[in-house]
Amino acid sequence: MSKFEQQQEQKQTREESFRENIGLLFDKIKADPSGYETIVEGIRRLVSDPVFTNEHPDFDVDEMMLRLEKASEFEDKKAYVDEVVDILTIVFAFREKNPVLCEDVEALHSMKECGFTPLNERVSYGASEGIAHFHLAPSWEVKAKLPELFLNGMFELAKVVKDDESIETVTGTSWLVATNTYGTMFKEMGFEIGEVTAEFKAKFFPDEEREVKKATMKREAFLKKYGDE
Question: Structure pTM?
Fold first, then answer.
């Protein structure tokens, strides 16, 4: 098979996957119409962001939203898939071409939606009651760079901790901390890894089926490692 034929085959596979995902979207709409708004809002955010509009300045967001709304009323699955594929082909092509930029848009939104302050494109934090909590936004497209991004985020967070004397502890809690890969990364970066109680998990991670652990470092140790002290 020639390189051109391979590229064509890969393109066809991606297009088939695109149609399949739109079909799954149709199923979700019929099963739970409330979830549809969240999905469409994510699409609207992307096509309204400068990363998209700079490349497609004439794209009509309002027309896209109107067509998607009308399509959501379709009862025939094939008709729905055909219509939405036609509407979103340009968006799909953009995501295929710029996966990192698209994830950047969603990551920034996720940080702000949760009330966190961004430290860089994937790491953010929140502070309360003497604790600074760091958070990692979805990072599938920059997985290889995550250690670098996290390290950069900690240097930025150290500036915050230094200026806020009320912060006594820096923590991060998630299923990532419980994995061998990222648990080891946090340990190598100076954090202690600990368990969380069943009550804590039920309160803060009620829908998380995976194990959750906490990474912790005291103020003095954190500033010694990441600050200029």
Answer: 0.79
